[in-house]
Every structure is written in C-alpha cells, then in structure tokens.
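Thread title: Can someone regenerate the structure for this chain?

I was given the following input by a collaborator and told the matching structure tokens would be attached. They weren't. Posting the sequence so someone can regenerate them.
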Amino acid sequence: MVVAQGPSTSNSFSNMNGSISRSSTTVWVLTATSPGDYTIGPSTASIGGGSLRTDPIKIHVSKR
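Best answer:
Regenerated them for you:
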C-alpha cells in the first residue's frame, strides 16, 4: 500500500451548556499496489494524560 493523499486533518469544537468538547479527524487515502492481503497498523491518540490505540485493520484487495 502507498499513501495517495494525506494526512488531512479537521477539527471541530462545541459548547453545550458550558461543556466544551473537541473532535479531531485525520484522513489518509491509501492505494493498494497489487491485489492481496494488507494490514493497516494501529493508530494512537493522546487524550489528556493518557493515550488511546486502535487495533490494526486487515483488508483483502482483489482485482476488479
């Protein structure tokens, strides 16, 4: 896989009854170089004093 575009990040903030929250989204566009099985590694995010980590994602790419 190769990165075709990215990263592209967008942020949004909301204030509801005095409670402020923030959302951040990061998008990568990946292109498979050939058919087969691929694994997209985990992503991490720092939140407050800790961090969150996603599981890897396994995908199968086939010819059209």
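The mean pLDDT is 93.
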